[in-house]
From TrEMBL:
Keywords from the named record: Hydrolase, Metal-binding, Nuclease, Nucleus
Subcellular location: Nucleus
DDE Tnp4 domain location: 92-249
Cofactor: a divalent metal cation
InterPro entries: HARBI1-like (IPR045249), HARBI1_dom (IPR027806)
Family: Belongs to the HARBI1 family.
GO terms assigned for molecular function: hydrolase activity; metal ion binding; nuclease activity
The keyword Hydrolase is annotated on this UniProt entry: yes
Name of the protein in question: Nuclease HARBI1
GO cellular component: nucleus
Length: 288
């Protein structure tokens, strides 16, 4: 599925396909412009992108996976070192990814900012690694509603929170958009009569939970396709969001190594955000 092929303008290697797809994911450039830069036909560029994304989704469960109980013990210690908030094994939040949806369905994706978006729900570690994502809810959905519809929320609801969080003392951290649960700690609501202890709790929670906001910023900063996904169909938008999350984890799990800089094939100008060891990624998508 993902190998060297013959295009209208000659042979297109796996490496070139990967560079085309990474350029697409890391920028807002059109497929036509990317094709011109890599001297391939528009159809070849689009095919390279779609095949690459399919390959990335095939390795999703290898790079985004829920931690074991033993791993949660380590994760809890790492979270505690941030602001001394105990028992945390994940920070959860929702992120709106704006996109272009077909006119017939666009109204379903309207959000409170009067734009159209799809929601990415993420859970991450203190090291900013995704351990769970859920993609596909329309922008009109509140974060709490997205959680209830997600596989994570359903499993906890049907099997109890220890089915995923293992121990009674383990929990997730969420913001005020979520309801307080034994397995999800949220801030006190500011009613104007908060005690000093409650204020301190909120500050500590915020300092710990902020990692998930940092993760969303990192994903959108490196994989700039998520700034605005102009592909219309919900399935294609969800594919690009999911792929960006896999790529994020790939980079961090491989220590963000910069062994080669991807450049414009017609010059030496570095393409923005394109710092990734593509040889390692090629190995993963071809051999996993």
């Amino acid at each position: 599925m993902y190998n060297t092929t013959q295009g209208p303008r000659g042979v297109v290697s796996v490496e070139k396909k990967t560079l085309i797809a990474l350029t697409y994911m890391a920028t807002q450039m059109s497929v036509r412009k990317i094709g011109d830069q890599f001297n391939v036909a528009d159809s070849t560029a689009l095919n390279s992108i779609e095949k690459f994304l399919a390959a990335v989704l095939m390795i999703k469960d290898h790079y985004i996976k829920w931690p074991s109980e033993e791993e949660c013990v380590i994760i809890e210690s790492q979270f505690k070192s941030l602001a001394n908030f105990p028992g945390v094994i994940g920070a959860i939040d929702g992120c709106h990814i704006e996109g272009k949806f077909a006119n017939s369905i666009a109204h379903h994706y309207n959000n409170r900012k009067s734009t159209q978006s799809m929601v990415l729900q993420g859970v991450c570690t203190a090291k900013k690694i995704f351990t769970n994502i859920y993609v596909g809810c329309t922008g009109r959905n509140h974060d709490a509603k997205v959680l209830s519809r997600s596989q994570l929320g359903k499993k906890i609801r049907e099997e109890g929170h220890t089915s995923l969080l293992y121990r009674q003392e383990f929990h997730l951290l969420g913001d005020s958009a979520y309801s307080l649960r034994t397995w999800c700690m949220v801030p006190y609501k500011n009613n104007g009569r908060m005690t000093e202890s409650q204020k301190k709790y909120n500050v500590t929670l915020s300092k710990t939970r902020v990692v998930i906001e940092n993760v969303f910023g990192m994903v959108k900063g490196r994989w700039r396709r998520l700034k605005y996904v102009d592909v219309q169909t919900p399935r294609n938008i969800a594919t690009r969001i999911t792929a960006a999350c896999v790529l994020h984890n790939f980079c961090l799990l491989h220590d963000d190594i910069i062994e080669e800089i991807l450049v414009n094939p017609h010059g030496n100008r570095t393409l923005p955000g394109m710092t990734i060891d593509s040889s390692k990624f090629i190995h993963c998508v071809v051999h996993k």
